[in-house]
From TrEMBL:
<keyword id="KW-1133">Transmembrane helix</keyword>
<dbReference type="InterPro" id="IPR018047">
    <property type="entry name" value="Ammonium_transpt_CS"/>
</dbReference>
<feature type="transmembrane region" description="Helical">
    <location>
        <begin position="198"/>
        <end position="217"/>
    </location>
</feature>
<feature type="transmembrane region" description="Helical">
    <location>
        <begin position="258"/>
        <end position="275"/>
    </location>
</feature>
<feature type="transmembrane region" description="Helical">
    <location>
        <begin position="229"/>
        <end position="251"/>
    </location>
</feature>
<feature type="domain" description="Ammonium transporter AmtB-like">
    <location>
        <begin position="11"/>
        <end position="407"/>
    </location>
</feature>
<dbReference type="Pfam" id="PF00909">
    <property type="entry name" value="Ammonium_transp"/>
</dbReference>
<dbReference type="InterPro" id="IPR029020">
    <property type="entry name" value="Ammonium/urea_transptr"/>
</dbReference>
<feature type="region of interest" description="Disordered">
    <location>
        <begin position="425"/>
        <end position="444"/>
    </location>
</feature>
<keyword id="KW-0924">Ammonia transport</keyword>
<feature type="transmembrane region" description="Helical">
    <location>
        <begin position="128"/>
        <end position="149"/>
    </location>
</feature>
<keyword id="KW-0812">Transmembrane</keyword>
<feature type="transmembrane region" description="Helical">
    <location>
        <begin position="281"/>
        <end position="304"/>
    </location>
</feature>
<feature type="transmembrane region" description="Helical">
    <location>
        <begin position="43"/>
        <end position="61"/>
    </location>
</feature>
<dbReference type="InterPro" id="IPR001905">
    <property type="entry name" value="Ammonium_transpt"/>
</dbReference>
<feature type="transmembrane region" description="Helical">
    <location>
        <begin position="98"/>
        <end position="121"/>
    </location>
</feature>
<dbReference type="InterPro" id="IPR024041">
    <property type="entry name" value="NH4_transpt_AmtB-like_dom"/>
</dbReference>
Length: 444
């Protein structure tokens, strides 16, 4: 093995990569439970298909554009690693093999466009969504990843914008793109009239739990070493997430009079989003403050869509755009200066310097993502069409786009139909088909 190689760090990074991959199925369950039953399968598929599309593009050119040597001005990488060629198995990134680092960063690239899908739930053609994913990661995500994390990226390396694990590059980036697509596709039929309640809150809770679990790989793994900073990032992730859930629930109780399971799940995700850019720069006490702020702020922000008139189906804008921006900006206030970076925030005597840099990162990434997501979405809508027909939307996307449904109610319907018959024989047949316990009577 080459000098500098660490087997412990490599194992840590590979395990973290697997945890981050788990987040995409977790997101699928989280979003899938939030939609109505007629489009649950489509929502799952919109997340899963990003794994296939982005993985192939990452190998072909995505990793090279994001993390190879800078091609000029810190805007994009060169094509030295096109097809992941010329990368030796013993070549290192820090103390871990480049292949391990690439696998870890691939999982970030996979989940970022998947986050966008929640903004356009219930109304997008699957083929159009797949094309959007391919174009958006190429035009937006790969360059932004280079800006923030590239060896000479113009936001991170040159301007000093801090983003440890993806508040700007992942969450703000995806959340703003979700807003652009929601505007391109327009509102769902029945928006504001139909409550459009989640069809499975247990599925939502399961999804949020998987996201919470996988997020430790997302944040702590970004240190790329099993060391003290990884421990700080891990602990701060837990603290901020818990605090945000409490903050969201408190806001919800005051405003709406109830503590909901959807609020608990959404609050946890808001905290995870907010702490992502800041987890290696702030203290545990700062993480409590950040979590409370993000929980309350995102709970308030999800209601803005009704006032501003855009249909963000699953609150991608309120949670990911607002939460990602808030977490990035709070670094400018709460960075202690003695953890991963020497830069101090306003509350630690650093003045407004770092806050200004963070604001620059938020503004640039937000504007870039919105403009190009809107252009890509509009181009797809004007050519192949992005939105399904009204009939398909009302009937449900699952059957039209996938020839399947998430749940099969046919057996239940047949048993119920027979149970409603008037003859004892019909009732007895219904009992048998529904597998009712012996001696149980099905009333007509």
């Amino acid at each position: 093995m080459p000098s500098g190689f660490s087997g412990g760090d490599t194992a840590f990074v590979l395990i973290s990569a697997a945890l981050v991959l788990l987040m995409t199925p977790g997101l699928a369950f989280f979003y899938g439970g939030m939609v109505r039953v007629k489009s649950a399968l489509n929502m799952l598929m919109m997340s899963f298909v990003t794994i296939g599309i982005v993985t192939v593009l990452w190998v072909l050119y995505g990793f090279s554009l994001s993390f190879s040597n800078d091609a000029g001005a810190g805007l994009i990488g060169d094509l030295h690693w096109l097809g992941m060629r010329d990368i030796g198995t013993n070549a290192l990134h820090g103390t871990v093999p480049i292949f391990a680092f690439s696998a870890f960063q691939l999982m970030f690239a996979v989940i970022t466009p998947a986050l966008i899908s929640g903004a356009i739930a219930d109304r997008a053609k699957f083929s159009a969504w797949a094309l959007f994913v391919a174009l958006w990661v190429t035009i937006v995500y790969f360059p932004v990843a280079h800006w923030v994390w590239g060896p000479n990226g113009w936001l991170g390396a040159q301007q000093g914008v801090l983003d440890f694990a993806g508040g700007t590059a992942v969450h703000l980036n995806a959340g703003v793109a979700g807003l652009a697509l929601a505007l391109v596709l327009g509102k769902r039929k029945g928006w504001k009239k139909d409550p459009m309640r989640p069809h499975s809150l247990p599925l939502v809770m399961l999804g949020s739990g998987l996201l919470w679990f996988g997020w430790f790989g997302f944040n702590a793994g970004s240190e790329l070493a099993a060391d003290g900073i990884a421990g700080v990032a891990f602990m701060n992730t837990q603290i901020a997430t818990a605090a945000a859930m409490v903050g969201w629930l408190a806001f919800e109780k005051i405003k709406h009079g109830a503590f909901t399971s959807l609020g608990a799940a959404s609050g946890a995700v808001a905290g995870l989003v907010g702490i992502t850019p800041a987890c290696a720069f702030i203290s545990p006490l700062g993480s409590i403050l950040l979590g409370l702020v993000c929980g309350v702020l995102c709970a308030w922000a999800v209601g803005l869509k009704y006032k501003l008139g855009f249909d963000d189906s699953l609150d991608v804008v309120g949670v990911h755009a607002v939460g990602g921006a808030a977490g990035a900006l709070l670094i400018g206030l709460l960075s202690t200066g003695h953890l991963y970076s020497p830069a101090k925030g306003l509350f630690y005597g650093g003045g407004f310097s770092q806050l200004g840099k963070q604001a620059l990162g938020v503004a640039v990434v937000g504007a870039f993502s919105f403009v190009f997501a809107w252009l890509i979405g509009t181009a797809i809508e004007k050519t192949m069409g992005f939105r399904v027909s009204e009939d398909v939307e009302l009937a449900g996307i699952d059957q039209a786009e996938h020839a399947e449904s998430a749940y099969d109610f046919s057996a239940v319907g047949a048993a119920l139909s027979k149970a409603l018959g008037s003859t004892p024989a019909a009732q007895e047949s219904a009992n048998e088909e529904a597998a009712v316990a012996p001696g149980t009577k099905v009333d007509a």
